[in-house]
Amino acid sequence: MTRVLVVGSINMDLVTTARQFPRPGETLTGQRFATYPGGKGANQAVAAARLGAQVTMLGCVGDDAFGRELKQTLASEGIDTQWVFTASGQPTGIAAITVCDAENAIIVVPGANHALTPEQITAAAAAFAAADVVLAQLEVPLASVTAAAEQAQKHGKPFFLNPAPAVVLPQQLLDLVTLLTPNEYELALALNEHAASWQALFARLPGRVVMTQGKAGASYSAPDGQIVGQPGFAVSAVDTTGAGDTFNGALATFWQLGAPEAMRRACAAGALSVTKPGAQSGMPTLAELDRFLEQQS
Question: Residue 97, CB half-sphere, CA atoms under 13 Å: how many?
Fold first, then answer.
């Protein structure tokens, strides 16, 4: 059982389904509304836990109803929440999501996620020491992500970074990343190289990039410079929210099986996740993933 430490955001997703996206100044009548546990960090933690990993969450919620509910939800998935801090005076983070024809538009209000400090990361040193893989994203302060990368290095643990939302990565942080997991746009912005092809960017980081490519699957920059591709899996999409997070949670969970197999399983898990509404509610269990892969062979 892989031990995955996830450092990142914990949000409540407020999801509206509509027949079209509103234009500026326009008011539309939606079809459905629901709340779902979310946040890229929590999503990736749930994905890994459902796929059989032993998961610890390191993040921050507000002292409010959403925060208490989200912490309980994580615990109900078997995730260790002892390092989920409560930020007094800060609201729990939310994401306002509009879904239309299986596509989505999202506004995130970070709230307590931006209260996670490097000092809290350092206080959780025992969690880094116990992990097999550390997985992070960029919905918490960059200084805290860097502190997590430094803790991972200190304890000799691989550090996976999903660079979303996309920003230019400081070289100090990039040098600490074992595996970067962007999409094509995030890769270009992370390296601040908008004119170069993704293949050229892969050549800069051999063995250190797995790039998601939506329906097309994913590609890996192997240590020898070769590009290893994994085709996507055809499914009927209902809601793409959380597909990338599912991919990342699966990749961290199965990385010990080798890059090609981890990518195959991560692409399959990501495909399965879009067949149900909501980010976490669509994430497959290990049994569901195994059954799906058996059907593909």
Answer: 26
For residue 107, list its beta bridge partners.
96
Interior CA angle at 142 toward 141 and 144, to 5°? Answer: 70
In the block, residue with structure tokens 């995730």: 79
Catalytic center residues: 245
Dihedral pair phi/psi, residue 204, rounded to 5°: -75, -25
CA 153 to chain centre: 20
In sequence order, which residues have a C-beta less than 8 Å from that of residue 53 and are 6 or more positions away?
1, 2, 3, 4, 249, 252, 253
Cβ atoms of 169 and 188 within 8 Å: the answer is no
Cβ contacts of 197 within 8 Å, gap of 6 or more: none
**CATH number for the domain formed by residue range(s) 3-9+41-84+114-296:** 3.40.1190.20
Cβ proximity of 75 and 81 under 8 Å: yes
pTM: 0.92
Q: Which residues pair with 15 in a beta bridge?
A: 34, 97
How far is it, in rounded angstroms, from Cα 292 to Cα 272? 8
3-state helix, strand, coil in the chain (%, to 5): 40, 25, 35
Is 199 buried (19+), middle (13-18) or exposed (0-12) by CB count in 10 A? exposed
Model pLDDT for residues 30-83, shown as the tens digit of each residue: 999 989 899 999 999 999 999 999 999 999 999 999 999 999 999 999 999 999
What does the CA dihedral 41, 45, 48, 49 come to, rounded to 10 degrees? -170
Instruction: Please give the mean pLDDT across all residues of the chain.
Output: 94
> What is d(CA 219, CA 197) in angstroms, rounded to the nearest whole number?
14
User: Which residues, 6 or more positions from 190, have their beta carbon under 8 angstroms from its beta carbon?
Assistant: 163, 166, 167, 168, 169, 174, 180, 182
* Residue spans per domain, the chain: 3-9+41-84+114-296
